[in-house]
Specification:
With 72 residues, the protein is mainly alpha-helical. It has one domain: Up-down Bundle (F1FO ATP Synthase). The protein contains two helices and no strands. The longest helix is centred in the N-terminal third of the chain and has 34 residues. It is elongated and about 55 Å long.
């Protein structure tokens, strides 16, 4: 096995763990907040979607780094 394959796998694997956990915690807390105060659901949902997009961007950066390691 080539060492670059291992490095690329580790880059995307470790780079996706943090955003995955963060998105799960974020969505869970948002659902708890909506459950406590349903009238605030639109504001909570907007903030949740924006935060999820920022967290997902970190995973995309990790994917780009893995692809650079693999093909460059």
């Amino acid at each position: 096995m080539d060492l670059t394959n291992l490095a690329a796998g580790l880059a995307i694997g470790l780079g996706a763990i943090g955003p995955g956990i963060g998105i799960g915690l974020l969505a869970g807390k948002a659902m708890e907040a909506i459950g406590r105060n349903p009238d605030a659901a639109p504001k909570i949902q907007t903030a949740m979607i924006l935060a999820i997009a920022f967290a997902e961007a970190i995973a995309i950066y990790a994917l780009v780094v893995a692809l650079i390691i693999k093909f460059v």
